[in-house]
Amino acid sequence: MKNIKICVIGLGYIGLPTSAMFATHGCQVIGVDVNEKVVVALNRGEITIEEPYLDIMVQAAVRSGQLKAYTKPREADAFIIAVPTPITEDKKADMSCVISAAEMIVPYLKKGNIVILESTSPVGTTEELLVPILEKSGLKIGEELYVGHSPERVLPGRILWELVNNNRIVGGINQKSAEMIRDLYKIFVNGEIYITTAATAEMCKTMENTYRDVNIALANELAMICEKVGINVWEVINLCNKHPRVNLHQPGPGVGGHCLAVDPWFIVEKTPDLAKIIALSRETNDSMPQHVLAKIDDILKDIEGIKKVSILGITYKPNIDDIRESPIIKLIELLDERIDYEISVYDPYMKAHKYQAKDIVTASENSDLIVLAVNHDDFNNLPLQDMSRVMRNKNFFDTRNFCNRHDIENKGFKYFLLGEGQK
Ligand code: SAJ
User: Fold this and answer.
1) How far is the CA of 260 from the centre of ligand 1 (A)?
2) Each residue of 45-60: b (16+ CB within 10 Å) or e?
3) What one-character DSSP code corresponds to residue 163?
4) What's the whole-model pTM score?
5) Residue 26 and residue 3 in contact, taking contact as beta carbons nearer than 8 Å
6) Residue pLDDT, tens place only, 118-158
7) Interatomic CA distance for residues 261 and 265, integer angstroms
8) Is 205 tagged catalytic?
9) Residue 323: how many CB atoms within 10 A of its CB?
């Protein structure tokens, strides 16, 4: 199956690493993106997203001539659609990028080609949305054109390792399509590849992220309960997880990213009357920034006038530069709406934010409260002495159970922990 030509539509977090992976495994890859800047950068061997080691792999792929980028598709043996599927304001899947990507490839399709949808999509998308568009090619779907869904399952920050080593699901619109797609991914996948139907693969992907979201909601609910009854949720979770069949997740200031905060809505959209726990979990997780604000109000209730809150970390999770759906951005918006708060921010990964200070100590100047919002590795050794020296009131609110309480208290701070109630 080597030396085959693959056309990847969408050169983002999934399309670009996938292109580089095929290209460094002997395939000829045509990368397509509607954004000309991405195309120009890629052809220079540069990347526009941050992901460990991706730059090295992309450079190798471009230099070898195996990966070239364009703004329009070209003829190929296989087409992979890896474009965004965000949600609209009213929590419905926005499939416009999938539709335009599919329409874009129709003129280039020929007998024997494979088309794979990798974008996370509501159940039914491949058969009900993609296939009718591909039929415009005049090819017999499943016999002359092989079609399926193979969702990406990689974790930002570990994409290259997980692309190769994770197990993969391939859902075909028929058995032959599934087998053809499986053989294609075998080029670089070391994990198991499981074959199923397209609709099952779609449901698996959305349910994997829903599983995690619902479990985080359970942890967040437990955190609020523990605050109420005056115990420490982190101790409860730690001890519960000593049970061989319990795996409680971690509470926090909310759930972000383009996956967990989005995909559960794809299931709710299809079956709103049945997906009750799923919708409620989304609401619980979405309400966490509001809960963090209520805790901030409580910590600072005795301070008169304008209070300054310094937020450490704004990305949706640690050690990456991604702020999509970040609950910390939501928290900042909530604080922004209040005339009694002044805000400063420090995030080592995000230099451009309007409240970003040049360093942690500058962000702490005249502050009344530090909020540890993201557990970046960089925050392991906070300059507590210098922070405490420049602060007005020495309060520290840890929303991730990340810091050492004693170190912080030893530097004269009052330490507050999300999920810990006072008796
Ligand atoms: N979070 C918690 N508590 C936890 C775990 C996570 O509050 O116990 C929060 C994080 O702080 C973050 C959010 O959840 O805001 C999501 O982070 P994540 O690391 O759980 O996941 P993502 O969104 O970066 O990647 C997920 C992964 N899915 C699963 O682990 C089931 C990944 O494998 C998928 O490929 C990816 O979604 C995707 O693209 O769908």
Assistant:
1) 6
2) eebebebeebeebbbe
3) H
4) 0.95
5) yes
6) 999 999 999 999 999 999 999 999 999 999 999 999 998 89
7) 8
8) yes
9) 18
